[in-house]
Amino acid sequence: MKKLITISILIVPLFAMAQAPIIKEMFTADPAPLVVGDTLFLYTSHDEDNAPKDKYLMKDWLLFSTTDMVNWEFRGVPLKTTDFSWSAGDANAAQCIKRNGKYYFYVSVTSKNDPGVAIGVAVSDYPTGPFKDALGKPLIINSQTTYASHSWDDLDPTVFIDDDGQAYMYWGNNALYCVKLNEDMISYSGEIISFNIKDKSQFGADYEEGPWLYKYKKKYYMVYASGLPESIHYSMSDSPLGPWKYQGVIMETIGNTHTNHPGIAEYKRKTYFFFHDASLPNSNDKRRNVCVERLIYDSDETILQIIPKNGITKKVK
Ligand code: CA
Fold first, then answer.
1. Distance 134 CA to ligand 1 centre (A)
2. DSSP string, 88-99
3. Which of 301, 137, 290, 276 is nearest to 216 (CA)?
């Protein structure tokens, strides 16, 4: 009896701490939310069921939607790497945003021509697609960016439109690049900027990848993965082009996956922080699960650290 009680005390807190992935039927990662009217759309990377334990197997992106943060509907496959004739595969992190009634889907995929990872953009009249390669070629190729010399530095695009209408794209693995997008959202002007990720006062000790840029109350927030295994940190600025001020950690390393990726959206008057872990049975580092928790600001607009719990269990109206 005594033994049983000891066991139950040990087990209950473990279950209470377990993650509650919002998608349980498929393996998903790199969440990118987009609010359109009453609906929150969630674009994700897709880890294939038969991914080997030591290698990512990612062929397409998935789309889910909700109107209450509790019930999620699968909306299909809006885009695949084979939709880009110049891609050799690897459907890495992506983000879709809306402008002038169209939806622009920025992806990082392996390129057939320029060795390494390139950024492409697809366009649709609907958030659900079908999306079509907008250019027939990459928007950015590996050889254009040289802050980092490895061939996969051009990963993880995040796109943001400021209140004055200027759009920016940020991206980078062990590099953080930025370029001003034109109003057509499929071309850019000016030089590609490389932020100094080695400057600890701007980006902490170990910027890795997966930037997510957004604005809240006139402040610009650069949220990103740091270190390996990754934790999520952030920096703030009064300008979309920096300089940035390092603020610290938002989410510590989860422990069951080497990677994490932030996606942030304000929806029905609350802010949500999407991320991924590998907490479902049969999950692993290459078969991940998208999760969500509330993001809460302190009185000075800094972000309170998020301890993953059970996700959102109460419907939002
Ligand atoms: Ca490059």
1. 21
2. EE----EEEEEE
3. 301
Contact between 114 and 143 under an 8 Å Cβ cutoff? The reply is yes
The 3-state DSSP class for residue 165 equals coil
Give the ranges where the chain is alpha helix by DSSP (H). 2-17, 200-203
Could you report the per-residue pLDDT of 279-299, keeping only the tens digit for each? 998 999 999 999 999 999 999
β 102-111/94-99 pair status: antiparallel
Name the amino acid, one letter, at 151. S
- Cα 89 to ligand 1 centroid, rounded to whole Å: 17
For residue 38, give Cα distances in angstroms to 20, 32, 35, 41.
24, 17, 7, 10
For residues 109 and 174, what is the distance between their CA atoms, to the nearest angstrom? Answer: 17
* Residue % of the chain over a pLDDT of 90: 91
The neighbourhood of ligand 1, an ion, using CB within 5 A, equals: 142, 145, 153-154
